[in-house]
């Protein structure tokens, strides 16, 4: 095989909470991200206060994808997208999250959205829960540490699986499910100030594993054509040196922070090293009698994942640190660093693709990859984002090597933030990822006008040539 399959799903990715806006339109309830505020140290959340006067909440408007989706999808169609990844806002379907009857206006919005995608030749790729738990479930039930959330989530899943049967084939149960441990506030789960925070985090993770496995079973029952995957945040770490302690630290970090979550969802059981880890923490994770059987029955069909950067691991406590996607690590002296402190490592994508495929031998889906950059409009009113083109080109080259040289089975590639949107980690608009520029700044000013960046025509050429012309 010398070129990618014509069935390869080229596309792009956004999330409802970061792009849709319309936070109080069409019967939508408040979500956790609707109380996210931007700040120098990233987003913050007021768990008990809700919306406050004179506070700017960037997700309230996002980039108004809710009202602009036809225009936005037309631009994606022009690029040649074969798929479009987004999420469903849980609180748009169930405003509180615990209702019996769904919000019809919310369901209709996604009917129209998915119909528009299909009309334009794009497969919808849908994340069921993407950092936007209904705020009511946080405040009245305590989030995912409460087992009742499983039933609320499954009721939500049943409604959307039924409603969008025949329209949506590709689903993912939880976005970056390992963030329930890595960044529980972002995942919409817990309050760090509690003394039992660590135990509640692992209890919440267990509830999400059970909910995911039951959702897989339910989705397959409602429509056997459904392909339902997990989605993990990949934390690629290399040993800083050949020192055995550094090698051990790097492997342990990848195993516990990334592979443990995909192992459970792909293999259907808790691996030995997770059991030992929980034992060492001295915590108890409560399980109901059927939980472990559910994990076996509800194994995912594919592994979706995000990959942006890598870091190193060192036993030396004095080495320089670097940032990353909801994480940090040791700075690798051989890599360049973005203006947000994320190290650029295209070869790391091929590395993690092979690690996943050797481990599971089921299809993989690269559902997030991209470069956040403070794009500047030049004197011609244009954004020449050659830095983004260089980043994506290098990563696509490594993806192609994984497919063509290594034999890795990859469903598709959806770069993150194909349309500029609000950053989940910082609440900023200035941290841009898109091929499509949106006129909106960090203070909420701007016209929301869409325009093409240089990378727009470049990615159009990539897709048209199935990755041959980079």
Automatic annotation (TrEMBL):
PROSITE patterns: GLYCOSYL_HYDROL_F1_1, GLYCOSYL_HYDROL_F1_2. One of its GO terms (cellular component) is cytosol. One of its GO terms (biological process) is carbohydrate catabolic process. The active site is at residue 368. InterPro entries: GH (IPR017853), GH_1_N_CS (IPR033132), Glyco_hydro_1 (IPR001360), Glyco_hydro_1_AS (IPR018120). It holds the Pfam family Glyco_hydro_1. Keywords: Glycosidase, Hydrolase. The keyword Hydrolase applies. One of its GO terms (molecular function) is beta-glucosidase activity. It comes from the Bacteria. Belongs to the glycosyl hydrolase 1 family. This is 6-phospho-beta-glucosidase.
């Amino acid at each position: 095989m010398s070129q990618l399959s014509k069935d390869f799903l080229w596309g792009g990715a956004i999330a409802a909470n970061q792009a849709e806006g319309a936070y109080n339109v069409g019967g939508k309830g408040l979500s956790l991200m609707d109380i996210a505020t931007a700040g120098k140290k990233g987003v913050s959340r007021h768990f008990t206060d809700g919306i406050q006067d004179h506070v700017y909440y960037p997700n309230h408007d996002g980039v108004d994808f809710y009202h602009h989706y036809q225009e936005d999808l037309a631009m994606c169609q022009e690029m040649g997208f074969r798929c479009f990844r987004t999420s469903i806002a849980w609180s748009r379907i169930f405003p509180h999250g615990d209702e019996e009857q769904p919000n019809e206006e919310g369901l209709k919005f996604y009917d129209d959205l998915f119909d528009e995608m299909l009309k334009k030749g794009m497969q919808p790729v849908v994340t069921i829960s993407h950092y936007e738990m209904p705020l009511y479930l946080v405040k009245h039930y305590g989030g995912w540490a409460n087992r009742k959330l499983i039933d609320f989530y499954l009721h939500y899943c049943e409604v959307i699986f039924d409603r969008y049967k025949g329209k949506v084939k590709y689903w993912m149960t939880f976005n970056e499910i390992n963030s329930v441990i890595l960044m529980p506030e972002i995942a919409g789960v817990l309050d760090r100030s509690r003394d039992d925070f660590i135990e509640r985090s692992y209890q919440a993770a267990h509830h999400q594993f059970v909910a995911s496995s039951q959702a897989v079973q339910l989705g397959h029952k409602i429509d056997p054509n459904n392909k339902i995957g997990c989605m993990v945040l990949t934390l690629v770490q290399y040993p800083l040196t050949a020192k055995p302690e550094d090698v051990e630290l790097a492997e342990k970090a990848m195993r516990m922070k990334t592979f443990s979550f995909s192992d459970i969802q792909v293999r259907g059981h808790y691996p030995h090293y997770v059991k030992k880890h929980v034992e060492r923490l001295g915590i108890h994770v409560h399980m109901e009698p059927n939980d472990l059987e559910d994990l076996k029955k509800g194994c995912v069909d594919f592994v979706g994942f995000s990959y942006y950067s890598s870091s190193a691991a060192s036993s030396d406590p004095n080495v320089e640190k670097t940032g990353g996607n909801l994480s940090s690590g040791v700075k690798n002296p051989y890599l360049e660093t973005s203006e947000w402190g994320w190290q650029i490592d295209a070869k790391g994508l091929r590395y993690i693709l092979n690690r996943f495929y050797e481990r599971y031998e089921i299809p993989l889906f690269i559902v997030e990859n991209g470069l956040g950059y403070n794009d500047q409009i030049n004197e011609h009113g244009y954004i020449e984002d050659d830095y983004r083109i260089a980043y994506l080109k290098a990563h696509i080259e490594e993806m192609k090597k994984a497919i063509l040289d290594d034999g890795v089975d990859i469903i598709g590639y959806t770069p993150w933030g194909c349309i500029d949107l609000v950053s989940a980690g910082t609440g900023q608009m200035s941290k841009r990822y898109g091929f499509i520029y949106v006129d909106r700044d960090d203070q909420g000013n701007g016209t929301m006008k869409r325009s093409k960046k240089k990378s727009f025509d470049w990615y159009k050429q990539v897709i048209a040539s199935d990755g041959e012309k980079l």
